[in-house]
User: What shape does this take?
Amino acid sequence: AHLDRVAAVEAKVNAFLHVDRDGALEAAKAVDAKRAKGEEVGPLAGVPIAVKDVITTKGVPTTAGSKILEGWRPPYDATITTRLRAAGLVMLGKTNMDEFAMGSSTEYSAYGPTYNPWDTSRIPGGSGGGSAAAVAAYEAPLAIGTDTGGSIRQPAAVTGTVGAKPTYGGTSRYGLIAFSSSLDTPGPCARTVEDAALLHAVIGGHDPMDSTSIPQPVPDVVGAARLGATGDLSGVRLGLVKEFAGEGAEPGVVAAYRESIEALVKLGAEVVEVSCPSFKFALPAYYLIAPSECSSNLARFDGVRYGLRTGDNGEHSLEEVMSLTRDAGFGPEVKRRVILGTYALSAGYYDAYYGQAQKVRTLITRDFQAAFGVADVLVAPTTPFVAFPLGSRTSDPYQMYLADLYTIPSNLYGGPAISVPSGLSEGLPVGLQIMAPTMADDRMYRVAAALE
Ligand code: GLN
Assistant: This one.
């Protein structure tokens, strides 16, 4: 049924870069066969899922939205993929994204944009717009996203779906094509909070293949979501981040945010205002740290190891072939970031830029720690604006970067954060963001499920 739905709506949505019809049917039959034999299968066995194209899938094309990886079929599965398969989930295909997960609208995909199912003249968010749109358009009940600066939460907010960024290190990065390794975090996209928690429980937990993976079990996110769904939040302290209570946001987003807070208070939550003065430096710090790490990570795309090779006709030196390949294979936003990151890391500038940004990161972490001394979770809008029209922010990178104003702090800190639908503004979805301390992912699920 989901494959039929994909076939029916893809011309309008373009959520998928690759649909693996045969693989999906085979995986579904394997689950049926297990059930027929009376074998134990997990709670998500047989459930279709879409996977962001930045996660490697053995034998199934994986491009990260880039021409430089066109035609590449990974020889191995990411840990996320392995866990999905082991739990019996049925992978429908790979979803569209901004190239190498750099962007907030999916317009920087080398394969054309994804369209927001609510209004196809608007963006579905990014970088994981394909995953969010697939879920919103009922092409898949679940999807995998990755969040480096907001790429799960912002697409969830603008498509009226649920998206969670787990604690950094709570989900494995093994087999995730690296953008900014100290920030990259895979996580669940779903239509309900409980669905997101069920998927989180399947993909989360320690992985010895990832040196930054936390050697602890996943908190009881499913139990927390079910507890929240009872609608009782008594004793829960919500920290309203003063700096994010509306500054820079559209009035309709602020109104939806206030209504959601009132709804949570009616369920018994207490409200405290917290001040996080360093959050205003999060965006500039992120746009030094993420490009710096990306300039190093993307060095591997040299025209030798994977995918595209340009100019290898005997007329060019090895260095020229690398340069021609990277020029042809990378899009403008990726080039901008590689150049920015190379500059920020170069001798003489390192302390002034990268070093300063790392200090800001420490200050942001301290703001979170102080706030969690008086509040159990922090709340803010997910993104300052509703889905914007396609093309309206591509000519000014700064306007695009602003989409992540509220999501980036939790990436720099490493704690979990979720976006949950929080009403409409001008007929378009708005998201509420709930942030929790590291390894307290269960708390955000409880509050999010109560709002639902
Ligand atoms: N939009 C942000 C960026 O362009 C975040 C991306 C992400 O989370 N992958 O870097």
Observations:
- Residues 101-104, 127, 147-151, 179, 290, 404 surround glutamine (CB under 6 Å).
- The chain is about 40% helix and 15% strand.
- The two ends are 27 Å apart (CA to CA).
- The first strand starts at residue 16 and ends at 19.
